[in-house]
Description:
Elements: H1 2-22, H2 24-35, H3 39-60
Keywords: Membrane, Transmembrane, Transmembrane helix
InterPro entries: DUF2065
Transmembrane segments: 40-60
Amino acid sequence: MTDALWLALALVLVFEGLLPLLSPARWRRVFEQALRLHDGQIRFLGLASVLAGLLLLGLLS
């Protein structure tokens, strides 16, 4: 189980690093847009991300 958690974390880091590696200007624009969002919008995006991840975990396990 611990190995799977570390592998998942490594995969997250790979995916998180792709956009700034391939397109730094677009990455910067995404963060500038995120700064303009209200707290509720950010919370909704976080909730949607958590639910999507849980759904994917349920489907894959």
